């Protein structure tokens, strides 16, 4: 094998790796998954405003949407890879921020005397989650690429 052949093989490997990262990030931020996740998040968070038998049904429906969407999303993934530590930490921090946003809006709506404060907070949180997923896509991409090159 000549030096040229070795370099060509390495370039081909790097090119395929870049294609893999692009496919992973593109699939991770796919619109149908975001919509299903936002609907599940809304259903679970707004269930606090519902009376007793309906709040359980809303939580079950919301969790069913989120978990079912996650299952379908993972099964249809063109690329399968393990989540790295920094990637998992990023997603956990994002979840904590969304939870804090939900309770901040709910408490603020309570002090303002607005009706259905949890539904309002759920709508704001779901909307922010969708917008954040598009806005943070470059960050996720850099984290995924950073984990893949280590």
Notable characteristics:
150 residues, mainly alpha, 6 helices
Overview of the structural elements:
By secondary structure, the chain is mostly helical. The protein has one domain (3-148). It is built from 6 helices and no strands. The protein has helices at 3-28, 31-46, 52-75, 85-112, 117-135, 137-148. 16% of the residues are buried. The model has no long low-confidence stretch (mean pLDDT 88).
Compact overview of the structure:
By secondary structure, the chain is mostly helical. The protein has 6 helices and no strands.
Secondary structure topology:
Elements: H1 3-28, H2 31-46, H3 52-75, H4 85-112, H5 117-135, H6 137-148
Helix pairs in contact: 1-6, 2-3, 2-5, 4-5, 4-6
The tally of structural domains comes to: 1
Distance between the termini: 27 Å
Query: How many β-strand stretches?
Result: 0
Helix content: over 70%
Q: Which value, in Å, is the CA radius of gyration?
A: 20 Å
Mean pLDDT: 88
**Number of DSSP helices?**
6
Instruction: Tell me about the largest β-sheet.
Output: none
Which percent range describes the beta-strand content? under 5%
What structural category arises from helix and sheet content? mainly alpha
User: What series of H and E elements makes up the topology?
Assistant: HHHHHH
Q: Which regions are unreliable across 5 or more consecutive residues at pLDDT < 50?
A: none
Oligomeric state of the chains present here: single chain
The 3D shape can be described as elongated
């Amino acid at each position: 094998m000549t030096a040229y052949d070795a370099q060509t093989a390495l370039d081909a490997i790097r090119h395929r790796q870049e294609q893999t990262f692009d496919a992973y990030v593109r699939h991770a931020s796919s619109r149908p998954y975001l919509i299903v996740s936002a609907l599940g998040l809304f259903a679970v968070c707004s269930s606090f405003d519902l009376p007793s038998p309906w709040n359980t049904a809303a939580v079950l429906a919301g969790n069913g949407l989120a978990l079912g969407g996650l299952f379908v999303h993972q099964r249809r993934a063109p690329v399968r890879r393990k989540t790295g530590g920094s990637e998992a930490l990023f997603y956990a921090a994002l979840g904590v921020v969304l939870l804090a946003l939900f309770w901040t809006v709910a408490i603020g709506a309570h002090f303002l005397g607005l009706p259905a404060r949890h539904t309002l907070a759920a709508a704001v949180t779901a909307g922010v989650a969708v917008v954040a997923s598009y806005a943070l896509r470059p960050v996720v991409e850099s984290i995924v690429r950073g984990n893949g090159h280590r």
